[in-house]
Design brief:
Layout (H helix, E strand, L loop, with lengths): L11 H5 L2 E4 L2 E5 H8 L3 H10 L9 E3 L2 H10 L14 E4 H10 L3 H23 L1 H30 L13 H19 L1
Antiparallel strand pairs: 1-2, 2-4, 3-4
Helix pairs in contact: 2-3, 5-6
Length: 192
């Protein structure tokens, strides 16, 4: 199946869609790599086994059953793995760089360069947007705190039988606001 004369038309965006974060590392699945390199998965893994000293655990590792199940659940194209008795191998960026030395073809060289560029591009994106990701985390935490406070208010309202009911008409913003402030004050007094 390996045909070095096949044109390598792979965009970085396509490659980025094949990169997953597993065990805190960005990796690519052996099946995707085999497809990109125009070889069968079996051939790719055999080449690795013949050169196993080049692939320590930090370069290539096999997914456990839970990781395989999660991969199948999140990616329809791995549906065939669902009933497979063996789990796929995944390669880190360094493992993929090593693959280009093991698979010595023009296609392998071109694809490896594109894959390395995709990893670099993704890393650049993460670094340049790190501040935004941190702010999103802070906003999410603040939202959780607000949700907890609102839940306390609603629980208090639900448990209080003495809460007077009021009807507010258009334009009675102050009256409605005062009512809510009084409820919150009662909550603070009773819960702290």
């Amino acid at each position: 199946m390996a045909d070095d004369k096949l044109p390598v038309i792979v965009e970085n965006r396509e490659i980025q869609d094949m990169i997953y974060t597993i065990r805190g590392k960005q990796v690519m699945v052996d099946r995707d790599l085999a497809e990109l390199y125009h070889v069968e998965t079996k051939v790719l893994n055999q080449a690795v086994k013949r050169n196993i000293d080049r692939f320590p655990v930090e370069f290539r590792f096999q997914l456990d059953d839970e990781e395989k199940t999660e991969l199948v659940t999140n990616c329809d194209r791995f549906e065939t793995l669902k009933h497979s008795t063996s789990s796929p191998y995944v390669f880190t960026e360094q493992g993929i760089a090593m693959l280009s030395a093991v698979l010595r073809s023009d296609v392998a060289i071109q694809v490896s360069i594109k894959i390395m560029n995709a990893f670099v591009e993704m890393r650049r994106f993460l670094i340049s947007n790190a501040g935004i990701f941190e702010r999103l985390d802070r906003v999410e935490l603040k939202q959780l705190e607000t949700d907890q406070k609102l839940e306390k208010v609603f629980n208090y309202i639900a448990t209080q039988t003495e809460v007077k009911q009021s009807i507010f008409y258009d334009g009675q913003i102050y009256d409605a606001f005062s009512f809510i402030v009084d409820l919150i004050k009662k909550l603070e007094i009773n819960s702290f």
